[in-house]
Amino acid sequence: xxxxxxxxxxxxxxxxxxxxxxxxxxxxxxxxxxxxxxxxxxxxxxxxxxxxxxxxxxxxxxxxxxxxxxxxxxxxxxxxxxxxxxxxxxxxxxxxxxxxxxxxxxxxxxxxxxxxxxxxxxxxxxxxxxxxxxxxxxxxxxxxxxxxxxxxxxxxxxxxxxxxxxxxxxxxxxxxxxxxxxxxxxxxxxxxxxxxxxxxxxxxxxxxxxxxxxxxxxxxxxxxxxxxxxxxxxxxxxxxxxxxxxxxxxxxxxxxxxxxxxxxxxxxxxxxxxxxxxxxxxxxxxxxxxxxxxxxxxxxxxxxxxxxxxxxxxxxxxxxxxxxxxxxxxxxxxxxxxxxxxxxxx
Length: 346
Fold this sequence. Notes:
The chain is an alpha/beta fold.
């Protein structure tokens, strides 16, 4: 039985999302690569935040909220999916979005995610990168409350112990797919073992990685999860993932013998070698990864998250740090809408 069956949730996701074999990329990289297509979650262009919003909006409804407030960068995939969810469920939506230093000039502020935010009817508050986005959001919440509204604040990326439950559910979904015979039939015959040697994903606000880890732990699955950092070093990212993982474990009330401090710490693994100069800033490796996946598999990545994560996967395979012949799952967190904001660099 699901460890989150008792927790309130609204259904927004087209699930289960496909788990697809990538034969041409596998040949290129010398591994067996599968892609968990969470770019296909369905809500407002899809992406990983939809799973988180299922739990966050159920919580908002339970608190009789009428307005969703969230924050992020100008091209925030999370903000776009929040705006779509608000439209679908009848909330007002206020997005506090901040300029990102070092990003492209010509399309970044008026295309891609920001265009869809406006189509979904969200009110957008645009901040310069020098402004304090957290303080602005707090003041906005107070203003809305003072005017008689009932606002609900969703953190950056939807990454708290409630939103991250979406990836506990994703872990259960993935394990169910693995226990089917679909993977064995592709290459290995009926007697092959159903497991991945490693899962690779982009990690930023930490909720996707922490939630996935919690789901694997709850189901006694030892699969390694590697987060490719999109905005900070591993020395900064690892503690964020670990802290949120501990909070989710408490939320789920998992048995203490499963979740010792040392065990949780041992499961957190991130790599900060591939984000370049900063969040949202272009790297040559990202451009290569995005173009290669498009040309070999018809698979669209995004410039900020999945593109950099795939660039890390490419490099780790070339270095042999991901062993030849490994069975690897790449969790595609979506965001291809953002490609239109980066037109000039492609």
